[in-house]
Every structure is written in structure tokens, then in C-alpha cells.
Amino acid sequence: MSKKQENIQLVLKNIEKMLSSMNYGSITLVVHDDSVVQIEKNEKIRLK
């Protein structure tokens, strides 16, 4: 498996983990030199 494929697999695992733990919000990927170098999670909490 190439380094790029390993990076993509790691990114997907992290995104899946983040999505499973949030109800509202956004996930932002930061890409540099053809690789994801940062994942940001902004979670919103809605009060009733």
C-alpha cells in the first residue's frame, strides 16, 4: 500500500469516528502537497 493510500485510509477512519460522535456540526479537511494534514471538527450543541 502506498503512502497516499495509507493517508487516505487513516483520514477515512478518523472521519468515521468523528461522524459517529456528533449530531450537528462540520468536519473540515486541510490538504497540503496532495495529502490531508489536518482534520478539524466543529460541533454544534442545540439547546431546546
From TrEMBL:
InterPro entries registered for this protein in UniProt: DUF2292
Pfam families cross-referenced by the UniProt entry: DUF2292 (PF10055)
Domain of life of the source: Bacteria
Protein name per Swiss-Prot or TrEMBL: DUF2292 domain-containing protein
